[in-house]
Specification:
Structural class of chain A: mainly beta
Oligomer: heterodimer
Order of helices and strands of chain A: EEEEEEEEEEE
Distance between the termini of chain A: 36 Å
Low-confidence stretches of chain A: none
Shape of chain B: globular
Largest interface: A-B, 27 and 24 residues
Strand content of chain A: over 45%
Largest sheet of chain B: 6 strands, mixed
Order of helices and strands of chain B: EEEEEEEEEEE
Number of strands of chain B: 11
Number of strands of chain A: 11
Helix content of chain A: under 10%
């Protein structure tokens, strides 16, 4: 199994809503990532978890809250988002955070904030 | 600061042509370089990973080369097919201020016409 599974595939939310994005991998990878991607731009790193601990937060606003309940799961909790947060949110995983091996991406959650 | 540039930004070719996509990076102190493919609204698929000690990698009709000293990589696609139409991104793995990270180029949008 070389898949990273993300749910939901699409999400529309209002600025006062609370929602969560979910990501799962069963490759035994110990590093997991959240990226944000705007149209026609490369992915931007948001968070990195290594062995279930947050190791990088790229100065992301607190309305985005990551969580890693176990080595296979990664969540991104969303609260009070702004319309400019509308983007494709991508989860990825790798063997470890040294990035010496391939990075595997999920298919993403297309988020629209109204 | 590592910067990655991809040329051209867009490319349109007839089916059957061989083509070359270019990627350059400013700092040669890299771990590796990955080429990814992304279909519209989807996640990234890793095509080839070249470690810094390697010169090239091949997978089917794809061949990627790496010249670390000059800060360049090329992705060669042989006998292009309409199904190859996608955005191709290169990313270099390197040590950043907060640990290992990938820095992406802006991508080349490829269209292969039947």
């Amino acid at each position: 199994d070389t898949e990273v599974t993300q749910t939901p595939k699409h999400l529309v939310m209002g600025m006062t809503n609370k929602k969560s994005l979910k990501c799962e991998q069963h490759m035994g990878h110990r590093a997991m990532y959240w990226y944000k991607q705007k149209a026609k731009k490369p992915p931007e790193l948001m968070f990195v978890y290594s062995y279930e601990k947050l190791s990088i937060n790229e100065s992301v606003p607190s309305r985005f809250s990551p969580e890693c309940p176990n080595s296979s799961l990664l969540n991104l909790h969303l609260h009070a988002l702004q319309p400019e947060d509308s983007a494709l949110y991508l989860c990825a995983s790798s063997q470890d955070r040294t990035l010496t091996e391939k990075l595997f991406f999920g298919s993403g959650t297309q988020l629209s904030v109204l | 600061k590592q910067e990655v540039t991809q040329i051209p930004a867009a490319l349109s070719v007839p089916e059957g042509e061989n083509l070359v996509l270019n990627c350059s990076f400013t700092d040669s102190a890299i771990y590796n370089l990955q080429w990814f493919r992304q279909d519209p609204g989807k996640g990234l698929t890793s095509l080839l990973l070249i470690q810094s000690s390697q010169r090239e990698q091949t997978s089917g009709r794809l061949n990627a080369s790496l010249d670390k000293s000059s800060g360049r990589s090329t992705l060669y696609i042989a006998a292009s097919q309409p199904g190859d139409s996608a955005t191709y991104l290169c990313a270099v793995g390197h040590l950043g201020t907060s640990g290992s990270r990938l820095t992406f180029g802006e991508g080349t949008q490829l269209t292969v016409n039947p």
